[in-house]
Amino acid sequence: MITISAFRWVPQFARGQVRDLRVRWALEEAGLPYKSRLLEQGDQDKPEYRHMQPFGQVPIFEENGFVLFESGAIVLHIGERCEALLPRDRGARARAAQWVIAALNSIEPHVVNIALIDLFYADEEWAKLRRPSAVQFLGRRLAGLSNALGDKPYLDGAQFTAGDLMMSTVLRILDATDIVKRDERLAAYVERCIARPAFGRALQAQLADFRQDAA
Ligand SMILES: N[C@@H](CCC(=O)N[C@@H](CS)C(=O)NCC(=O)O)C(=O)O
After folding, report:
1. Ligand 1 center to 76 CA (angstroms)
2. pLDDT at 152 over 90
């Protein structure tokens, strides 16, 4: 049985955003059953967990003694068992991986930069000074992304791939702002991706684990 790690509790604003969601979504696309290993406060710093995830983060993926960390690596690993995530055609497969990495490397750091300012430092003077240029920089990246998407439904064309899974989860980190939403093409793209039933099931599963904490 596949197990993924997740936090038993996170603040309200993070519910539906924690990165185990990406892995749950990929598992749902692949039709692979899994259970969650819910971490209590402090569990992520225990040597046993650090041995598997050096940075003490979620998610990790475990199956029959095989362990993997980094949501991108895990999604690509699951994609090996799911054509809907990684197409069989070699070129299309490489391009799907390219978009996973673009999401994580070229977009996510700039998205997170703004999310951190908004969530934790909004009242700090330095944050007020920094935010406009951070938004402007991300705006240039998003314009490039929007151009690359063009009129296609998904980044590589007609078919949803792991690249879209990752890109849409990254873009929705800024759901509380209009930064992505003001680009109608990107807004529609994110909606199209998360309208997939597998996303809905993954989101409900993550939220259900948090409700378990409240019970
Ligand atoms: N690059 C990692 C980032 C994982 C990550 O940032 N996880 C967050 C939750 S969304 C976490 O565990 N934060 C706690 C911490 O960093 O101490 C991945 O994609 O798996």
Report:
1. 17
2. yes
The dotted CATH code for 2-83+198-214 is 3.40.30.10
Closest-CA residue, ligand 1 atom 17, reads 57
Residue 211: per-residue pLDDT: 83
pTM of the full structure: 0.97
Is 88 exposed, middle or buried, given 0-12, 13-18 or 19+ CB atoms closer than 10 A? Answer: exposed
User: Top-level CATH class of 90-196?
Assistant: mainly alpha
Task: Tell whether ligand 1 has an atom less than 6 A from the beta carbon of residue 173.
Answer: no
- Is it the case that residue 102 has pLDDT exceeding 70? yes
Domain ranges of the chain: 2-83+198-214, 90-196
**Contact between residue 172 and residue 103 where contact means Cβ atoms under 8 Å apart:** no
Q: What local confidence, expressed as pLDDT, does residue 61 receive?
A: 98
